[in-house]
Specification:
Elements: H1 35-42, H2 123-156, H3 180-187, E1 191-196, E2 199-205, E3 211-214, H4 216-219, E4 228-231, E5 237-246, E6 251-256, E7 266-267, E8 278-283, E9 291-305, E10 316-322, E11 334-336, E12 341-349, E13 366-370, H5 371-384, E14 388-391, E15 394-398, E16 404-409, H6 414-417, E17 425-429, E18 432-433, H7 437-445, E19 452-457, E20 461-466, E21 468-471
Parallel strand pairs: 7-12
Antiparallel strand pairs: 1-2, 1-4, 2-3, 3-6, 4-5, 5-6, 8-9, 8-11, 9-10, 10-13, 11-12, 12-13, 14-21, 15-16, 16-17, 17-18, 17-19, 19-20
Length: 475
């Protein structure tokens, strides 16, 4: 085994000595200390693995029959137990092989190597110093040479300048089908901005001759004769007048004057919507015309009080909830599916920081009127100037244990004809759970007049009702 190179000797297998006449071993002069003893005590301590576990790789465990490198005076590489004293010379001769304990004796006729005397102090340090100086000079020269070579390689590299690079090939204008880009290309030309003295909003062109669908609360400020200006996507403008409006559904139709050939929006089917479906909102939030945002359908059939008569059941919406960013100015603009079809009219947002002095902004909770309801109302307004409202013929409030408590029944109305009475609690509407009075109003608004529906009264009573209608007379 080769020990570390701090003056330790190496174990060499000893040839079997021939029998020769007894000789007196040569002694190391007493004034020269044994190099084994000195080196053993001065050797660096090695870290050993505990005897209870495996030896560290590359090291042997310390045990019987192995010299202890950390014990002063131990003989490195010589036979014997740990702590064996350095060999004693000059003792009485002994016949035979060295023993594992006691003094070390030479065998008769065998010449054992005599340790070399130590060099005079200082000479080794001088040689080491010269070697270190040579190494330092060599390292410095190598470093300088390496740097010069590296700098030459850097200087030889060509310089690339992005300003000098040619422009990339122009991308095709054909947006992938079903992408937000393709939806924006299709819908933006039919989305307009409405400017009024009291603010602004958005709308969608539903006919090439200038009919525009928007929210009632966007234009109601001009109902008494205020001016409405339409700004089209190409920057052209036109004045508009109100054709009709329905505060109960928060919808209105205006007509732009002296326009023809306008691009019109494609209306979809809100009944096909599913929670999680991707949608795009387009409008003019904070007067930023043509803004496109995207999100998903967060919920369906959400009862929301919104519009110009906010806080009253007369403006409860059966809304589509979305996390697409909707802000003040988006009202009246379209909510669109990924086929570019309008599925809702953006109408309201939940904004907890709104005050009477400041407008709120998007917190990811916006609401749109389903296009199935908006289509019917817009058609009535463009044809007659008025809208009809679907009604059940009851007044309701929240029940103590949930549901919609009937507080009053309209004489001759749909509810009375079906046998409903004051005090009944409606808990279901055509399979939908009714847990509040607003939920019942929203469910009724989602239907058309003369639709037949099944109501659940109490826990299990089922009643069939044919819904009625009434003409809306805006105030």
């Amino acid at each position: 085994m080769t020990e570390n190179n701090h003056g330790a000797a190496e174990d060499q297998p000893q040839p079997e000595a021939p029998q020769t006449p007894q000789q007196t071993p040569t002694a190391v002069p007493s004034e020269q200390p044994s190099p084994w003893a000195a080196n053993a005590s001065a050797a660096p301590q090695q870290e050993w693995q505990p005897t209870s576990g495996p030896a560290h790789p590359g090291f042997q465990q310390q045990g019987a029959g192995q010299p202890d490198p950390g014990q002063p005076g131990a003989l490195q590489g010589a036979p014997g137990q740990p702590g064996t004293p350095a060999p004693q010379f000059g003792a009485a001769p002994h016949q035979g092989a060295p023993t594992s304990t006691g003094a070390f004796y030479a065998q008769p006729g065998v010449s054992y190597p005599v340790p070399q005397q130590q060099r005079r102090p200082g000479r080794g340090r001088v040689v080491a110093g010269v070697a270190a100086a040579v190494l330092a000079v060599g390292g410095l020269s190598g470093g300088i040479g390496g740097y010069i070579g590296y700098q030459a390689a850097v200087d030889a590299q060509p310089v690339t300048n992005a300003l000098s690079a040619p422009k990339p090939v122009q991308q095709s204008s054909n947006a992938p089908a079903g992408s937000i880009e393709s939806v924006a290309e299709k819908v933006l030309p039919s989305v307009v901005k409405l400017q009024l003295s009291g603010g602004e909003g958005s709308g969608i062109v539903i006919s090439s001759d200038g009919f525009i669908l928007t929210n009632n609360h966007v234009v109601e400020g001009a109902a008494a004769g205020g001016q409405i200006q339409i700004v089209f996507q190409d920057g052209k403008t036109a004045t508009a007048t109100i054709v009709g409006r329905d505060p109960s559904s928060d919808l209105a139709v205006v007509k732009a004057a002296n326009v023809t050939g306008l691009p019109t929006a494609e209306l979809g089917n809100s009944g096909d919507l599913r929670v999680g479906q991707q949608v795009v909102a387009v409008g003019s939030p904070f007067d930023l015309q043509g803004t496109v945002t995207s999100g998903i359908v967060s919920s369906l059939n959400r009862p929301v009080r919104a519009g110009g008569e906010q806080g009253s059941q007369s403006s409860v919406l059966d809304a589509i909830q979305t996390d697409a960013a909707i802000n003040p100015g988006n009202s009246g603009g379209p909510l669109v599916n990924m086929q570019g079809q309008v599925v809702g009219i953006n109408s309201a947002i939940y904004s907890p920081n709104t005050t009477s002095q400041s407008q709120g902004g998007s917190v990811g909770i916006g609401f749109a009127i389903p296009i199935d309801q908006a289509r019917r109302t817009a058609k009535e307004i463009t044809e007659t100037g008025k809208a009809t409202q679907t009604v059940l013929g009851v007044s309701v409030k929240d029940g103590e244990n949930g549901g919609a408590l009937v507080s009053e029944v309209t004489a001759g109305g749909a509810a009375e004809k079906a046998g409903l009475k004051a005090g009944d609690v409606i808990t279901g509407f055509d399979g939908r759970k009714i847990d509040t009075s607003d939920a019942l109003v929203a469910a009724v608004r989602s239907k058309a007049p003369n639709d037949k529906v099944k109501l659940t009264v109490g826990e299990d009573k089922s009643v069939e009702v044919t819904l009625g209608s009434q003409v809306v007379e805006p105030k």
